[in-house]
Specification:
heterotrimer; A mainly alpha (491); B mainly alpha (317); C mainly alpha (227); A: 491 residues; 19 helices; 78% helix; globular; B: 317 residues; mainly alpha; 11 helices; 71% helix; 0% strand
Chain lengths: 491, 317, 227
C-alpha cells in the first residue's frame, strides 16, 4: 500500500485528534495551518507518484489521474483557507459571535471535514465513498450553525435534513448497485470496488444499473446542488462562517460531482450495449442545464451577498454537470478544467466577501457600498473575482466555458443558445449587484479592516495563469483524466 | 346431493340456533369471573329467551307492518347467513351459497331492516341508533370485504368452503396476508357484532347505545327474536374467524367420529375466542362514537396491507 | 419465488418484513411522540430479527454481528437517546394529530404500490428468496420520507429519518445479504453521529425559536417583503 495515500488521507484525522486537546485559540489556529500544509505536501508527493506510476492502488484506496488532481486541489484550498481563517476566526471570536468552545469545535471539525473529503476522493470502495460523503455533511452541520443566530440554526437544520434525505436515497442506489454486482462478481467484498466494477461493467444488468443510477443521481445530486434539490445550498453557504462557505462551495460540491462522474463511468459501461446507451449522460445534461438556467435567474433576486454567490456556485456546478453529461473528450476536458478554476475562484470570492461584510458590518447587498474607496484591495479583489467567475477573458473560467461552448456546438448545437443566454443572464445579475457594492457612495463611518488578501491574490493569480497558458504537466494530467472518463483524448 | 348430506346441513343450521345463546352466556360468565363476580349461569340466555317468548308483544300505536315483520326478517336473514358458514363440517350442500358476498349481503339485509325498524316508531333513540349503526357498517363493510378478498385471492375463490379447504390442504404456511386479514377481520367483527370498544351490549345509556337503541321499542317474542339474531351474528363471526383461519379439526366427511371431533373442536375454538373477547372487553374502554371511524380505518388499512402483501410478497414474479 | 417453495424460516422472514411495513404505517400516523418512539424501536427489533434469519439461512455469517449492531443501535440506544431528549425537552405528553389522516394513509399506500413497481426489474431476477422484500424496504424508505415531509415537529422528523435508515438496512439485508462489514460499520457510525447531532440541534432550535415546530423556522426566504 502506498505510503503517500495513507499520509495524505489520514494527516487531517490526526490533526483533528490533536486539536481536540488544544485549548489556546492562537496555537489551535497555527496547528490548523501546519496540518493543512503537511496534507498539501503529502498530496503533492502523491501526485508525483501517480505521474510516475499511472495508478496508485492498494489497501482499499485507488488514486488515478482523475482523483489525484482533485486531491491536490482539496489539500491546496484547505491550506489557503486555513491560512485565511487563522486571523479571521480570531476576529470572529473577539467580536463575540462565537465562544472559545465554538472555536475548538471549528478547528476540529475543519480538519475532520478535510479528512472525509480526502477519504471520499481516494477510496476505491463505493460504500466507503458514501460513508465519507455523509461524514462530510455531518462534520459541517454544526459549523453552519456556529453563530447560533435563528437564521444560522434554520440553515443548518435545512442542510442536515435535506442532505440527509438525499444521501439516504444514494445509499439505496448503492445497495441496488451492489445487488447488480453480486450476480457478476463472486467475492462479496469486491462487489463494491470501483475498479473491479469498471472492469466488468458490460456484464452488469442494464435495467438494474439504470435504477441504481437514478437513485444515486438524486442522492449525490442533492449534495452537488442540482435543481430542484438545491434548497439547502444558499442557506447553508451563506449562514456559516466565511471559511466554511469557502470550503463548502469550493470543495464539497466537487467531491459530490466526482462521485456522480465515477458512477456514470460504471453505468455507461453497463448500458453501452442497450438501446438507451446515453441515459446517464442525458439525465446529467437535463439536471445540469436546469440548474444552470434556474440559478442564473435566481441570482437577480438575491439581497444577501453570500446567497448570491451560492447561486453562482449552483450555476457553475450545473454547467459542469451538463458538460460531464455531454461526454466526449472536449466537453470532459472543459469540465475538469472548470472544476479546478471554479474551486479556486469561488473560494477566493468568498474570502473577499467575508472581508467586505466585515467592512460594511452586514451581508445585505443594499448596505455594502463603496468598497473600492474604503479599502481598495478588497474592492479590487471583489471586482476581479467577480469578473473571473462571470467568465471574462483572460481568466481560466473563460477558457473552460469557451471549450464547453465549442463542444456543445459540435454535438448539441441547439443547447448553445441556452448556454449563452444563461451565461448572459448570470453575468448581468452578478454585475448589476456588484457595481454599487464596489463603486457606490461610501456610507458614513466605514473603516478599512485588517484583511488577509494573500490567499485571494494567490488563487486569482493561479486562475489567471491557467487562463492564459495552462502548464504542460497540468494539461497532460487533465488529458489523462479525460481519457479515463470519456475514453478519448483531447491532446 | 344425498339426503344424509342435506340432513347434516339442516342439523348444522339448527346447531347454530341452539348454540348462539350458549356462546353469549359463556362470554358473560367469563366477564363476570374477570370482574370477581360469580355471574349468572351459562344457561341464563335460554331462560331469558323462554321468559320473553311467554310475554305479550306490545307495540306503539305508531308502529307499522314493518315493525311487526322486522324481527322475523332479521332473524331469518341472519340464520340463513349463519347456516352457510361451515361450523362442524365442510362439504355440505349449503356450500353452494357459502359465497362471502352472499353472506355479506344477507347480513346487510338484516341490518337494513333493523335500522328501518329502529326508525319506524319515531322515537329519537331509534333514529339515533339507526344512524350510528349505518355509520359503523358503512366503514366496516369495505374492510370486511377487502379482508375476505385477500383470502379469496390466495384460494382463488370467494366461496368460504373453498377457502377453508384450501387452508386445510396447505398446512404450515405462514402468510403475511392472512395475518393482516385476521387482524382486520377481528376489528370488523367487534364493530359489526356491537361489542366493546365500539358498542356496549349491556348498556341503555343514550350516549352509548347503538344496537340497543334500535331494539329499544321491542318486547315479548319480537325482542326475543332480535336478541337471538344478535347472538347468532356473534356466533357467525366467531365461526368465521375460527374455521377460516384455523380450520384444523373440522370434519371433511360425514362419519360420526369426524363429526363428533369437529363439534368438540369448534366448541373449544369458540370457547377460546369467547374468552379472548371477554378479556378484551374487560380491559378496553368503549370509544366515543366519533372515534369509531378511526378504528375502522385501521381495520381497512390492515385489510389493504394484507392485499398488498399478498401481491408483493407472496405471488412469485 | 412463490411462498409455497420457501421453508418455514423464510416464510417467517416474509411475515416479519410485512409487519415492518405495518410499523412504518403506525409510525406515520402516531400522534403521540413517545408512542412513536416505541413504534420505531419495535421496527428496529423486527429488522434485526430479519437480519438474524438471513444470517441463519447460511451464506452470510457476518450478518449476526450486523443484527446485534442494529438491535443495539436502532432498537435500544437511539430510542433511549430520543426518550431522554423528549423528557429533557418536556415533550412527554406532546401529541400532534395528522391534519388529514385519510389522505396521508392513501399517499402511503400509493408509495407502497409505487415502490413495488419501481423494483420490478430486481424482483424478476429470482435468485434468492428475499427479492420481494426489497419492494417492502423501499416502501419503508419512502414512507419515512413522507413522514419527514408531513410532520412539523423536529423529533418526529428525526424519527422519519431514522425509519428511512431502517428501510435502507432492510433493503441491504434482503437484496444483497448485507453489505461488506466495513461499509456497514461505517453506516452505523454515521447514523449514530447523526442521532447525536440531532440531539444537539433540538436544544439549539428550542433556544432559538422556543418551540420545536420547524415550520416556524422560516426567516430565510427570498420574498421581497423581507428585511
Amino acid at each position: 500500500m502506498s505510503g503517500a495515500v495513507f499520509v495524505t488521507v489520514f494527516t487531517p484525522l490526526a490533526g483533528a485528534l490533536l486539536l481536540v486537546w488544544i485549548r489556546n485559540r492562537n496555537r489551535a489556529g497555527w496547528l490548523n495551518v501546519m496540518v493543512s500544509a503537511s496534507t498539501f505536501a503529502a498530496a503533492l508527493a502523491l501526485a508525483l507518484e501517480v505521474a510516475r506510476r499511472e495508478v496508485v492502488a492498494g489497501g482499499g484506496f485507488r488514486v488515478d489521474a482523475f482523483n489525484v488532481y482533485l486531491l491536490v486541489l482539496t489539500a491546496f484550498v484547505g491550506m489557503t483557507t486555513s491560512i485565511f481563517s487563522r486571523p479571521y476566526m480570531q476576529y470572529v471570536c473577539a467580536t463575540g459571535k462565537t465562544s472559545a468552545r465554538g472555536m475548538r469545535l471549528y478547528h476540529v471539525m475543519f480538519q475532520l471535514f478535510i479528512f472525509t473529503m480526502l477519504l471520499a476522493l481516494a477510496t476505491d470502495n463505493l460504500g466507503i465513498l458514501w460513508v465519507a460523503v455523509e461524514g462530510a455533511t455531518l462534520t459541517t452541520v454544526l459549523l453552519v450553525s456556529l453563530y447560533r443566530t435563528p437564521e444560522a440554526i434554520e440553515a443548518a437544520w435545512k442542510y442536515f435534513i435535506l442532505c440527509g434525505v438525499g444521501i439516504a436515497l444514494a445509499l439505496f442506489g448503492t445497495v441496488v448497485l451492489y445487488f447488480a454486482a453480486q450476480h457478476v462478481i463472486d467475492e462479496p467484498a469486491a462487489g463494491l470496488s470501483w475498479s473491479t466494477l469498471h472492469a466488468v461493467a458490460p456484464q452488469l444488468e442494464p435495467s438494474i444499473m439504470s435504477l441504481a443510477f437514478v437513485f444515486l443521481l438524486v442522492g449525490y445530486g442533492t449534495k452537488v446542488g442540482l435543481v430542484p434539490l438545491h434548497q439547502w445550498l444558499p442557506d447553508a453557504h451563506s449562514e456559516g462562517p466565511t471559511p466554511m462557505s469557502a470550503v463548502l462551495s469550493g470543495l464539497l460540491l466537487n467531491v459530490a460531482l466526482y462521485a456522480i462522474v465515477r458512477l456514470k463511468m460504471l453505468v455507461d459501461g453497463a448500458l453501452a450495449a442497450t438501446d438507451t446507451p446515453y441515459l446517464a449522460g442525458q439525465l446529467l445534461m437535463g439536471f445540469g442545464l436546469a440548474s444552470f438556467l434556474v440559478a442564473g435567474l435566481f441570482l437577480h433576486r438575491q439581497r444577501d451577498i453570500k446567497r448570491m454567490f451560492s447561486y453562482s456556485s449552483i450555476e457553475h456546478m450545473g454547467l459542469m454537470t451538463f458538460a460531464f453529461g455531454m461526454g466526449g473528450p472536449l466537453a470532459t476536458f472543459a469540465a475538469l478544467l472548470h472544476m479546478l478554476v471554479h474551486s479556486l475562484t469561488k473560494s477566493a470570492i468568498f474570502v473577499t466577501v467575508g472581508h467586505a461584510a466585515h467592512i460594511a458590518g452586514t451581508q445585505s447587498i443594499e448596505h455594502i457600498r463603496g468598497l473600492i474607496r474604503t479599502q481598495p484591495i478588497v474592492g479590487w479583489g471583489l471586482l476581479i473575482g467577480v469578473a473571473a467567475i462571470a467568465g471574462f477573458p483572460p481568466f481560466g473560467i473563460f477558457t473552460s466555458e469557451f471549450l464547453l461552448l465549442s463542444a456543445t456546438m459540435q454535438s448539441q448545437p441547439w443547447f448553445t443558445v441556452a448556454l449563452l443566454v444563461g451565461l448572459a443572464v448570470a453575468f448581468a445579475g452578478l454585475f448589476r449587484h456588484l457595481h454599487p457594492m464596489v463603486y457606490g457612495v461610501v456610507p458614513a463611518g466605514q473603516q478599512p479592516v485588517p484583511a488577509n488578501m494573500i490567499p485571494v491574490m494567490v488563487h486569482l493569480g493561479l486562475v489567471l495563469w491557467l487562463g492564459v497558458s495552462i502548464p504542460v504537466f497540468l494539461a497532460h494530467w487533465l488529458d489523462r483524466a479525460t481519457g479515463l472518463i470519456s475514453g478519448g483524448h483531447l491532446l | 346431493m344425498t339426503l344424509a348430506a342435506w340432513g347434516l346441513a339442516l342439523l348444522q343450521a339448527l346447531l347454530y340456533v341452539a348454540l348462539a345463546p350458549l356462546l353469549a352466556g359463556w362470554i358473560r360468565k367469563v366477564k363476570a369471573r374477570l370482574q370477581n363476580r360469580r355471574g349468572a349461569a351459562l344457561w341464563q340466555p335460554y331462560r331469558d329467551m323462554r321468559k320473553l317468548f311467554g310475554k305479550e308483544a306490545r307495540m306503539a300505536h305508531t308502529a307499522s307492518l314493518l315493525f311487526r315483520a322486522a324481527p322475523y326478517i332479521v332473524f331469518a336473514a341472519t340464520w340463513l347467513a349463519a347456516a352457510a358458514v361451515p361450523l362442524v363440517a365442510t362439504g355440505l350442500p349449503t356450500a353452494a351459497i357459502a359465497d362471502v358476498i352472499v353472506i355479506a349481503g344477507l347480513l346487510g339485509l338484516a341490518r337494513f331492516f333493523l335500522a328501518l325498524a329502529g326508525m319506524d316508531v319515531g322515537t329519537p333513540f331509534g333514529g339515533m341508533g339507526a344512524s350510528r349503526e349505518m355509520l359503523v357498517s358503512a366503514l366496516a363493510e369495505p374492510a370486511m370485504l377487502m379482508a375476505v378478498f385477500t383470502l379469496a385471492m390466495t384460494a382463488h375463490s370467494t366461496n368460504l368452503v373453498s377457502v377453508v379447504d384450501y387452508q386445510l390442504n396447505s398446512t404450515g404456511m405462514l402468510r403475511p396476508s392472512y395475518l393482516f386479514a385476521l387482524s382486520g377481520l377481528v376489528l370488523v367483527a367487534i364493530a359489526e357484532t356491537g361489542r366493546i370498544p365500539v358498542d356496549n351490549p349491556a348498556t341503555h345509556l343514550e350516549l352509548t347505545m347503538i344496537h340497543e337503541a334500535m331494539i329499544l321499542e321491542y318486547s315479548g317474542r319480537h325482542l326475543a327474536l332480535m336478541e337471538w339474531a344478535a347472538q347468532l351474528k356473534l356466533l357467525l363471526y366467531g365461526a368465521l374467524l375460527a374455521n377460516v383461519f384455523f380450520p384444523w379439526g373440522i370434519a371433511q366427511g360425514a362419519g360420526m367420529g369426524e363429526l363428533g371431533l369437529g363439534l368438540v373442536v369448534v366448541m373449544a375454538k369458540l370457547a377460546l375466542l369467547g374468552a379472548a373477547l371477554a378479556v378484551s372487553e374487560t380491559v378496553l374502554a368503549k370509544m366515543r362514537v366519533f372515534r369509531v371511524p378511526a378504528f375502522l380505518n385501521l381495520a381497512l388499512l390492515l385489510a389493504l396491507l394484507g392485499l398488498l402483501s399478498h401481491v408483493i410478497l407472496e405471488v412469485g414474479a | 419465488m412463490s411462498l409455497e417453495h420457501l421453508t418455514l424460516l423464510q416464510q417467517l422472514m416474509v411475515v416479519l418484513a410485512a409487519v415492518v411495513l405495518f410499523t412504518s404505517f403506525v409510525l406515520l400516523e402516531q400522534a403521540r411522540l413517545v408512542a412513536a418512539i416505541h413504534a420505531f424501536a419495535w421496527q428496529g427489533v423486527l429488522v434485526a430479527l430479519v437480519t438474524v434469519i438471513v444470517a441463519a439461512s447460511g451464506r452470510h455469517t457476518h450478518l449476526f454481528f450486523s443484527a446485534a449492531l442494529t438491535l443495539g443501535l436502532k432498537a435500544l440506544l437511539i430510542p433511549w437517546m430520543l426518550h431522554r431528549l423528549v423528557r429533557r425537552l418536556e415533550l412527554d405528553r406532546h401529541s400532534e394529530p395528522l391534519r388529514r389522516p385519510a389522505l396521508v394513509i392513501m399517499a402511503a399506500l400509493a408509495l407502497v404500490i409505487f415502490s413495488y413497481w419501481l423494483v420490478l426489474p430486481i424482483v424478476q431476477q429470482e435468485l434468492i428468496f428475499t427479492r420481494n422484500i426489497v419492494a417492502v424496504s423501499l416502501a419503508v424508505v419512502l414512507i419515512g420520507l413522507l413522514m419527514m415531509v408531513i410532520r412539523t415537529q423536529a423529533v418526529a422528523q428525526v424519527l422519519g429519518f431514522m425509519s428511512m435508515e431502517n428501510g435502507l438496512f432492510l433493503a441491504a439485508v434482503s437484496a444483497t445479504g448485507g453489505m461488506p462489514l466495513m461499509v456497514e460499520l461505517g453506516v452505523a457510525f454515521d447514523v449514530l453521529v447523526a442521532a447525536v447531532l440531532f440531539g444537539v440541534f433540538f436544544f439549539q432550535i428550542r433556544a432559538s425559536i422556543d418551540s420545536l415546530d420547524v415550520d416556524r423556522m422560516n426567516r430565510l426566504t427570498e420574498r421581497v417583503d423581507e428585511q
